[in-house]
Design brief:
By secondary structure, this protein is mainly alpha-helical. 76% of the residues lie in helices and 0% in strands. The chain is built from 21 helices and no strands. It is elongated.
């Protein structure tokens, strides 16, 4: 065969290959067929730390966002821009146009599902999620959205199964682990919740939300000794977490560790110096350790920042050395003439009874004790 003949045959092969490729509709390419994904998901199951999983997860998202059509890719990118600007309806329209070009592009279905969820159309969101998962069963983003919808509809078993699917592909997904833990907590499966939270924190010790969830789980079960390190770790990560400081202070005082509790309350008051409830709790702890002057200041601050605080007035009345001023008695009399919660009203009546008793105005004292007792009998579950 001559060189020319060989050249002609080679050229014919090239032309035939080109003709064959031209008949292929590349728009049928969908992300779940990308060979890189299998490797990345395999890698994901082997990674032991969530922080190390970040680059792999980012690569997966990047591949999911690729489409083999220039026009569709441009529209997809524009849809993302509209979404970032909260122009949700425009974004939905743009992703719909992408799907008109390539209905097998899973991420466009997922994006549109997210938008339907944001605007509250759960039925359409579930429909688009179903299509996403039909194309890409491993799509942890779509599965997470589906679980949230199930939870909002009190379909807890379906939500649990969805989180299990996420974790089967990405066992170290700390968000899925924590949310699965919250679901277990919500359904009062406290043992499972604890295991999931601890697994989350093993993978990501700096995950403040998980520490918060674990601490509250221990507190609701009255496992106060376990709650202390959980709240303490949360505060190390987030020193200005007001609720955590107050909770830790309350736990210490319940365990009769009053000094430690008072210190936590004081730290909380540096963040919110107007919180009457914290002053009241701190006042109770200060009374217990015999710090009378500080105790009085704490109760007075509780009244300053919440003038209706019957508990603060009654707590002051129970201090043997405290004597109400004429102005304070006047203020309490004003309060009982106004519309205030029954619990506060009862305690103010008792405080006035004690105030008039100290002033030896026994007839007035009797009237307020009688009124307080009568109101209390109407509310038998309230303990003053």
């Amino acid at each position: 065969m001559t060189e020319q003949n060989r050249a002609n045959k080679t050229m014919k092969k090239i032309i035939l290959i080109a003709l064959f490729l031209s008949t292929i509709n590349f728009n049928t390419y969908s992300d779940q067929f990308d060979l890189r994904l299998k490797t990345l998901f395999d890698d994901l199951t082997l990674i032991e730390n969530e922080l190390n999983a970040g680059p792999t997860i980012n690569q997966i998202w990047s591949i999911w966002s690729e489409i083999g059509n220039i026009e569709a890719q441009q529209k997809f990118n524009l849809g993302n821009q509209y979404m970032a600007k909260r122009q949700y309806l425009k974004s939905i329209d743009m992703f719909s146009e992408v799907l008109d070009i390539d209905p097998n592009f899973a991420e466009a279905w997922n994006k549109r599902a997210t938008l339907h969820y944001i605007i509250g159309d759960y039925e359409k969101s579930v429909s688009d999620i179903s299509k996403t998962l039909e194309l890409e069963p491993r799509h942890f983003g779509a599965l997470d959205g589906l679980a949230e919808i199930y939870i909002s509809q009190d379909q807890f078993e379906k939500a649990a199964q969805t989180y299990k699917k996420i974790l089967s592909n990405d066992p170290n997904n700390v968000d899925a682990l924590r949310l699965f833990g919250l679901l277990a907590f919500k359904t009062k499966n406290y043992n499972l919740a604890e295991k999931l939270y601890l697994r989350t924190l093993t993978l990501m010790p700096s995950f403040s939300l998980a520490w918060d969830n674990l601490a509250k789980l221990y507190r609701i079960q009255n496992k106060l000794s376990e709650a202390i390190p959980a709240f303490s770790n949360l505060i190390k990560i987030d020193p200005t977490n007001f609720e955590a400081l107050v909770s830790l202070g309350t736990i210490y005082t319940k365990l009769a560790k009053y000094e430690e509790g008072i210190q936590q309350y004081k730290k909380a008051l540096l963040i919110d110096k107007t919180n009457a409830r914290v002053y009241l709790s701190m006042g109770h702890a200060l009374k217990t350790i015999g710090s009378r002057e500080e105790c009085e200041r704490a109760y007075l601050n509780a009244i300053k920042y919440f003038p209706l605080s019957g508990e603060a007035y009654w707590s002051l009345a129970n201090l043997k050395t405290y004597k109400f001023s004429a102005l304070q008695i006047k203020e309490m009399n004003k309060l009982i003439s106004s519309k205030i919660p029954s619990v506060e009203l009862i305690q103010i009546h008792f405080a006035l009874g004690k105030a008039f008793e100290s002033n030896k105005e026994y007839s007035k004292s009797f009237v307020h004790y009688k009124e307080g007792n009568w109101l209390q009998r109407k509310l038998p579950l309230i303990h003053i």
